[in-house]
Design goal:
This protein is α/β, with parallel strands linked by helices. Helices cover 43% and strands 14% of the residues. The protein is globular, with a radius of gyration of 17 Å. Bound molecules: 1,3-dihydroxyacetonephosphate.
Length: 250
């Protein structure tokens, strides 16, 4: 019932030449009809990658968005309207690297979520605990807090037009993915938190897993009942690997 989705978060990697080759290989690949595929290049490359994807079924997403609608004096920021204007359909908000390295708190992430949706972008809201938080047994409390900030500002209805990505911080870029059971537990918790407020929206919400997803572990993660695809970092920079991950979700 929920259509799987795999998004590639390229983070701050790539060049015009590398992107052109990667996107060419992705466009040539056949993903079949059973999966939505999205790539999220660095902001500087969105327009050019978007042009290359124009006649394909692959969607375009941004890695972040400004919380302010603008236009206005916000040096260095990129508004949701601008992302829409260059062809984005999605925007990641609240990635753990933004939260940790750029001190984005739950309230700011919630405002980014709302700003993205106000322009018709589908926010991909990232949630997830650090290793320390997992070891202290507060994973659910952390994820609940991250979700509730957005629920409080945007309301549950907004989750009918959004995606949540569970990305345990300890699994990102470490090669150590969550086990399928660990992912399933948190995904079910996320869905339950939304379903408590609206059962239909909860049932329809796509919850992606992110954190060291590879072709070798994708199928077992995506086989879990509440895992609806992936948000893939490092492995999304290699076309063959990424295509195999997408195929595992289809
Ligand atoms: P890796 O797949 O490189 O662990 O990154 C996950 C991630 O942060 C995707 O947003």
């Amino acid at each position: 019932m929920r259509r799987p989705l795999v998004a590639g978060n390229w983070k701050m990697f790539g060049s015009r030449a590398e992107n052109a080759k990667l996107v060419d290989e992705l466009v040539q690949a056949s993903f079949g009809g059973g999966v939505d595929v999205v790539v999220c290049p660095p902001c500087a490359y969105l327009w050019e990658v978007g042009r290359q994807l124009k006649d394909s079924r692959i969607g375009l997403g941004a890695q972040d968005v400004c919380a302010e609608a603008g236009p206005g004096a916000f040096t260095g920021e990129v508004s949701a309207a601008m992302l829409k204007d260059v062809g984005c359909g999605y925007a990641i908000v609240g990635h753990s690297e933004r939260r940790a390295l750029y001190r984005e708190d739950d309230a700011l992430v919630a405002r980014k979520f709302v700003a993205a949706q106000a322009q018709g972008l589908v926010p991909i809201l990232c949630v997830g605990e650090t290793l320390d938080e997992r070891e202290k047994g507060v994973t659910s409390a952390v994820v609940a807090r991250q979700l509730d900030a957005v629920l409080g500002l945007a309301g549950v209805a907004a989750f009918a037009r959004a995606i949540v990505a569970y990305e345990p911080v300890w699994a990102i870029g470490t090669g150590k993915n969550a086990t399928p059971d660990q992912a399933q537990d948190v995904h079910a918790f996320v869905r339950g938190r939304i379903a408590d407020r609206d059962a239909t929206i909860g049932a329809g919400l796509r919850v992606l897993y992110g954190g060291s997803v590879k072709a070798a572990n994708a199928a077992e993660l995506f086989a879990m009942a509440d895992v609806d695809g992936g948000l893939v970092g490092g492995a999304s920079l290699k076309s063959e690997e990424f295509v195999r991950i997408c195929a595992a979700a289809a």
